[in-house]
């Protein structure tokens, strides 16, 4: 399986992992807040807000207090009312901002959905030239699955499909943002084309594979807009927990009323206050207490966190088909990584020429170079380069070898080389290089003797993770093995450190390769992966995934070929490369538009970050309540039980300023945390215990302490406002 | 030896004794619930009842068995009390009135043992033994059976079978409760507790006066009253009565018994899930909460603020001179932390903040170590909630003992921790809103409010101890508290079994470096924090108007 990307920069090397890396998203543009305000106002509609039980209760409370404030006006009441409405608005704003970023992307995508007119072929057989008489114009939306269309240079491809004939360079920048064109051709793993992209050269015939209205771009738009965003399993569970907490606080506050009425009645001499009169705690204060206690912080930011998580993936050019897949990525136990393109740089290169049977190095180098001059594979070119750089052999142009006939590589012979005629005193000469067994057979047939040290050399190279290519020549009918070319995989820099990180996070990495076990082991050791699967067939891969899953593990993998499709579908997280076939893209639950297999690691980190952000803000939200109790309870009851003023440890100015400060803090903290919700909390790969310790300190202890400071600071300011004095 | 030094010896020896019991008793219980063999007497019982001891039950069936058994128990106990005047050994007492009989039937079936009556002047010996005494055994066994089903939920995989309720019930009684109780009853008799079938006898009291006191099978009742965290005393004075609890060392023994099973079950849990470290973490959480609560109570008692202590000048009022303040505080802490509800001193007389810690102990949901079985399942539900929050914070779908905590598990856990606060707060609120019920309070102001709050907290959490100072033998209180006890017992059990069912079905996730370690001090500390914070947040307003209003000056 190859993950070759045409005309694209090679996969960028991962950041140096020595410094702790940080997964982050885009920053919050303050203008976004302003632009999203209309959306936030629209979301005040109770029918929309109903889906967020915590904020719905705040809205009900805001309506209730508004009525109370109208009936029984006071500056204090109106201040509370305003801040309660702001609390709801801020929550809506968080969601609107998160959605807004997706909307901007969706708009850009929509612009690419121009109304192309497709040229459908009424009938066409493979190999046949296109008969202009049989071409009929059809609006792109009316194309059905299985239709054949012809697309020429300059035209837009009318729908998703596979190239069935021809080869063309295609501009896919509308989807990938990458301006360099890519090659699409019939057959193989680079046959899929996407509707809305433009053919730059040549002509192709495409079989449409999408259903009308379900194109890749349509799906992308829906995804980034969050149109059919469904709550993920963990989000649902967290919502249940938050609802339960809300009910508890609702009960605690509601049942406080008879207790308060009783307590007030016991002490008839105490004058009424803004908070407490003969009818018990006033509605305004009751709602204030409730809103401060229920987990509004996380309730307000929960959906924004989810949307922003998907958005962070989109910014990395990964499309997740569902939030569930993103969450699963955070849980992954086993990563299946393809060797080529992920762990090693795509191609092998020549590292050394090792002569056998007493041949000189120079002679071997010359033969190796000769045999590779016409070999345009990356391996072949690297042999020429190595011969030049190490042995000073000038590259010989085709013109210099007039009497040479090049023998191309075929799967049958498993050799390539060159035949030189006798010319100018030089005898006729055949040079071959290729797989050891093939070249040895060829030499034997031509009566050659196989040097004793050949087997040892070949095995040595295999064992060290290299690929041996044996070079032999036949001069005037006598064959002779000259030596071995050592080809070696180049492991990308920084991979070992990344895999160490993965291990600390509890993720096992398995390298998948078609190489033999010896070579595979050596590369696996060099790269530092935990395990490898050598000589892997699609069936082996599938079996490995099933085996891991049977043990309760979650598996992630990347793939691009049609034969990867079953494994991609079976894996819990299947990332299809955008360059891959449509079958692969259909089977996976994510598509990487950059077709960079290393990205799987980032996807895992984003999945984790999403959950951590939710957990951290939940902890923060609950820890906040303690300070709010210390602000509000003495404010409510110190009038009847002066001893309770001891709980006013913040020494807040007055009961009114205390309650108002708590409500204002509660609203402002939502705005203050919007950037964090959108960006995600800091995530550095480390062990579970270390991560928990860190987050508990920051969001647990921090959540305990910050509101004491915040409420006190707000109180210092608002004590000068009439109504809070 | 001064009182304080004696108190220290008393407490330290208790901690040591419990530590020494942890392994052998915990291991014994694990063997009881994993053994495949049935004793002959057990086979006899199964044949008699008509159950197949080798057939296992799904969670719904297990829950149905629990409920059916308990319903039959309630009805039987109710009828028993209603016709006691026609039965043997009635001592001439009339039939128990309907509301009280209902309240008492539920109270003993739910392991609450709230007593709105005086035992020695209401119940005959037959009802005490064959009715209440039997429920002392079986209600404790039901609690243990349910937690064992939950533990199986964690331990098993890919199954919907949680064991057989009838087998768990019978084994608990035959192999755990009965042997210990027989032994301990004899020890208590040796210590001076009485065991006879006498009716009223005239007794010359310590001060030389003459008093008529009922005799009865007290020692045998006493052992299971403590071991099964029941707490329903033979006498109204409960463990403060010299016939129930004659000396300091029987006092020690009674406290030890009421803590023994609760503190050993985590070992059973650890054994059954295949990691004793997990059990150790849970017992450590329980111990930290218990010792913290004890420390607070002792400190508040020594500082003596409160209505009564201030009047008397010491926190001695309502405590037995035989036991003293520190030992009484340990008993009170133990009895409120374990859903026992037996008392050897009067909680109403405690300092306001001392009383508040007792209230808080119950509000914890009886988890440190809690009632037999119910304490551990309460703690495990809290662990599930803690794991959920902690798991999110490390970026994984939360998992506990390899089982994922998803929406279904959180749903059951949430319903569980919603139940008792709902009962306690709504009950208290309604009682305080009804003028007639408020009139039942013998104290006014914050102290009166604390008494009502205490009553509903005690009933909702199946504790059974009372703050006294409130007339609860009225139709309204008997009915309302009866409902509080029934809902407070059986709803959580259903949710626990539901949780067990959905855990057992799962294939466990293998532990990796990315898995949250749940056996380390870090997690135990977080669990303590979550438990205390959730309770504090839930009850803070009510506590503020009750004991806090009274205690802060």
List keywords for this structure.
heterodimer, A: 725 residues, alpha+beta, Calcium-transporting ATPase, cytoplasmic transduction domain A, Rossmann fold, 7-stranded mixed beta sheet, 24 helices, 16% strand, elongated, B: 553 residues, mainly alpha, two-stranded antiparallel sheet, 19 helices, 66% helix, 3% strand, globular
Question: In percent, how much strand structure appears in the residues of chain B?
Answer: under 5%
How many strands, which pairing sense, and closed or not: the largest β-sheet of chain A? 7 strands, mixed
Strand arrangement, largest sheet of chain A?
Answer: 12-24-23-22-13-20-21
Q: How many domain units of chain A?
A: 4
Rounded mean pLDDT of chain B is 90
Please compute the radius of gyration of chain A using only Cα atoms. Answer: 35 Å
Give the helix level of chain A as a range of percent.
Answer: 40-55%
User: Helix and strand string of chain B, N-terminal first?
Assistant: HHHHHHHEEHHHHHHHEEHHHHH
Please work out how many helical segments of chain A DSSP would assign.
24
- What fraction of residues of chain A sit in β-strands? 15-25%
Oligomeric organization of the protein chains: heterodimer
Over the alpha carbons, how many angstroms does the gyration radius of chain B reach?
22 Å
Walk across the major sheet of chain B and give the strand order: 1-2
Low-confidence stretches of chain B: none
Termini separation of chain A: 74 Å
Fraction of residues in helix of chain B? 55-70%
Low-confidence stretches of chain A: 1-26
SS content category of chain B: mainly alpha
Q: What is the averaged pLDDT score of chain A?
A: 84
Distance between the termini of chain B: 34 Å
- How many strands in all of chain A? 24
């Amino acid at each position: 399986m190859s993950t070759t990307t045409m005309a694209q920069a090679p996969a960028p090397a991962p950041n140096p992992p020595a410094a702790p890396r940080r997964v982050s998203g885009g920053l919050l543009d303050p203008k976004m807040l302003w632009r999203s305000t209309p959306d936030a106002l629209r979301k005040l509609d109770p029918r929309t807000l109903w889906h967020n039980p915590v904020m719905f209760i705040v809205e009900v409370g805001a309506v209730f207090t508004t009525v109370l404030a109208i009936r029984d006006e006071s500056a204090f009441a109106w201040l509370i009312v305003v801040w309660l409405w702001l609390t709801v608005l801020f929550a809506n704003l968080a969601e609107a901002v998160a959605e807004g970023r997706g909307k901007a992307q969706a708009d850009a995508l929509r612009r690419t959905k121009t109304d192309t007119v497709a040229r459908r072929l009424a009938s066409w057989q493979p190999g046949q030239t296109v008969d202009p008489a049989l071409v009929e114009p059809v609006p792109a939306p009316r194309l059905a699955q299985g239709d054949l269309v012809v697309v020429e240079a300059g035209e837009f491809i009318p729908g998703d499909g596979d190239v069935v004939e021809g080869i063309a360079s295609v501009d896919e920048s509308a989807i990938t943002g990458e301006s360099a064109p890519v090659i699409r051709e019939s057959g193989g793993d680079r046959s899929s084309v996407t509707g809305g992209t433009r053919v730059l050269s040549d002509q192709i015939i495409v079989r449409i594979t999408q259903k009308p209205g379900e194109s890749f771009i349509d799906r992308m738009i829906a995804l980034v807009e969050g149109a059919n965003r469904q709550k993920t399993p963990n989000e649902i569970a967290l919502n249940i927990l938050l609802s339960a907490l809300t009910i508890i606080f609702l009960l605690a506050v509601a049942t406080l009323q008879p207790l308060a009425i009783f307590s007030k009645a016991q002490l008839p001499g105490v004058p009424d206050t803004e908070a407490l009169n003969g009818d018990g705690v006033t509605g305004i204060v009751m709602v204030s207490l409730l809103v401060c206690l229920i987990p509004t912080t996380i309730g307000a930011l929960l959906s924004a966190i989810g949307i922003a998580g998907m958005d962070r993936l989109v910014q990395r050019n990964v499309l997740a088909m569902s939030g569930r897949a993103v969450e699963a990525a955070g849980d992954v136990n086993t990563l299946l990584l393809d060797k080529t393109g992920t762990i090693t740089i795509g191609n092998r290169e020549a590292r050394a020429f090792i002569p056998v049977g007493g041949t000189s190095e120079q002679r071997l180098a010359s033969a190796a170079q000769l045999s590779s001059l016409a070999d345009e594979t990356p391996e072949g070119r690297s042999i020429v380069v190595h011969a030049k750089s190490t042995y000073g052999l000038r590259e010989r142009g085709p013109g210099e070898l007039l009497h040479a006939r090049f023998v191309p590589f075929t799967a049958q012979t498993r050799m390539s080389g060159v035949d030189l005629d006798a010319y100018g005193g030089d005898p006729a000469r055949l040079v071959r290089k290729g797989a050891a067994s093939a070249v040895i057979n060829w030499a034997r047939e031509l009566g050659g003797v196989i040097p004793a040290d050949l087997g040892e050399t070949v095995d040595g190279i295999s064992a060290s993770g290299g690929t041996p290519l044996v070079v032999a020549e036949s001069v005037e009918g006598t064959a002779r093995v000259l030596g071995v070319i050592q080809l070696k995989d180049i492991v990308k820099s920084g991979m070992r450190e990344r895999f160490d990180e993965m291990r600390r996070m509890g993720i096992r990495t398995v390298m998948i390769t078609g190489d033999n076990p010896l070579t595979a082991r050596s590369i696996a050791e060099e790269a530092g992966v935990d395990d490898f699967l050598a000589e892997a067939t699609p069936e082996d891969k599938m079996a490995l995934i099933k085996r891991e899953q049977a043990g309760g593990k979650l598996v992630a993998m990347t793939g691009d070929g049609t034969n990867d499709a079953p494994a991609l579908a079976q894996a819990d997280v299947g990332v299809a490369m955008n360059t891959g076939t449509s079958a692969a893209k259909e089977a996976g639950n994510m598509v990487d538009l950059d077709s960079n297999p290393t990205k799987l690691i980032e996807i895992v980190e984003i999945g984790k970050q999403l959950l951590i952000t939710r957990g951290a803000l939940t902890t923060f939200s609950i820890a906040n309540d303690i300070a709010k109790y210390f602000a509000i309870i003495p404010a409510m009851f110190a009038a009847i039980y002066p001893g309770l003023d001891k709980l006013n440890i913040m020494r807040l100015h007055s009961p009114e300023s205390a309650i108002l400060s708590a409500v204002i803090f509660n609203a402002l903290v939502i705005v203050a945390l919007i950037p964090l919700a959108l960006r995600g909390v800091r995530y550095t790969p480390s062990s579970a215990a270390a991560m928990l310790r860190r987050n508990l300190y920051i969001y647990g202890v921090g959540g305990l302490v910050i509101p004491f400071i915040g409420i006190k600071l707000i109180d210092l300011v608002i004590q000068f406002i009439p109504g809070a004095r | 030896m001064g009182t304080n030094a004696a108190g220290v010896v008393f407490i330290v020896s208790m901690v040591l004794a419990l530590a020494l019991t942890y392994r052998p008793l915990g291991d014994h219980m694990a063997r009881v619930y994993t053994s495949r063999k049935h004793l002959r007497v057990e086979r006899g019982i199964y044949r008699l009842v008509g159950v197949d001891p080798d057939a296992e039950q799904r969670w719904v069936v297990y829950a149905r068995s629990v409920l059916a058994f308990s319903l039959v128990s309630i009805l039987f106990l109710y009828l028993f009390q209603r016709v006691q005047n026609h039965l043997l050994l009635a001592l001439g007492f009339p039939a128990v009135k309907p509301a009280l009989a209902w309240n008492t039937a539920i109270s003993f079936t739910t392991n609450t043992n709230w007593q709105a009556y005086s035992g020695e002047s209401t119940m005959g010996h037959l009802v005490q033994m064959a009715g209440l005494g039997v429920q002392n055994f079986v209600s404790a066994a039901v609690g243990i059976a349910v937690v064992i089903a939950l533990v199986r939920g964690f331990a098993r995989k890919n199954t919907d079978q949680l064991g057989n309720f009838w087998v768990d019930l019978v084994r608990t009684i035959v192999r755990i409760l009965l042997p210990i109780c027989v032994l301990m009853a004899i020890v208590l008799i040796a210590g001076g507790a009485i065991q006879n079938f006498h009716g009223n006898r005239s007794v010359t009291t310590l001060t030389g006066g003459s008093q008529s006191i009922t005799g009865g099978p007290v020692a045998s009742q006493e052992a299971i009253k403590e071991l099964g965290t029941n707490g329903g005393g033979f006498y109204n004075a409960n463990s403060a009565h010299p016939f129930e609890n004659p000396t300091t060392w029987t006092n020690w023994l009674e406290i030890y018994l009421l803590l023994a099973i609760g503190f050993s079950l985590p070992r059973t849990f650890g054994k059954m899930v295949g990691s004793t470290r997990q059990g150790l973490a849970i017992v450590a959480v329980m111990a930290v909460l218990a010792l913290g609560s004890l420390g607070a109570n002792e400190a508040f008692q020594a500082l003596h603020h409160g209505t009564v202590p201030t009047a008397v000048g010491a926190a001695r009022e309502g405590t037995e001179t035989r036991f003293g303040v520190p030992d009484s505080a340990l008993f009170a802490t133990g009895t409120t932390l374990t859903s026992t509800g037996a008392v050897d001193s009067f909680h109403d007389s405690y300092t306001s903040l001392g009383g508040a810690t007792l209230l808080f102990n119950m509000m914890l949901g009886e988890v440190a170590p809690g009632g037999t079985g119910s304490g551990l399942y309460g703690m495990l539900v809290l662990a599930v909630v803690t794991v959920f929050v902690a798991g999110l914070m490390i970026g994984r779908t939360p998992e506990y003992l390899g089982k994922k905590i998803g929406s279904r598990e959180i749903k059951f856990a949430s319903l569980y921790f919603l139940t008792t606060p709902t009962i306690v707060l709504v009950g208290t609120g309604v009682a305080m809103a009804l003028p007639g019920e408020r009139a039942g309070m013998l104290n006014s102001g914050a102290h009166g409010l604390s008494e009502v709050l205490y009553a509903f907290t005690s009933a909702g959490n199946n504790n059974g101890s009372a703050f006294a100072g409130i007339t609860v033998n009225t139709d309204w209180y008997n009915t309302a508290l009866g409902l509080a006890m029934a809902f407070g017992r059986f709803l959580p059990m259903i949710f626990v079994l539901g949780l067990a069912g959905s855990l057992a079905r799962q294939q466990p996730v293998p532990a990796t470096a990315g898995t949250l370690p749940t056996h380390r001090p870090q997690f135990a500390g977080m669990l303590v924090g979550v438990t205390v914070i959730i309770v504090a947040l839930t009850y803070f307003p009510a506590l503020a108007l009750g004991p806090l209003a009274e205690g802060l000056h």
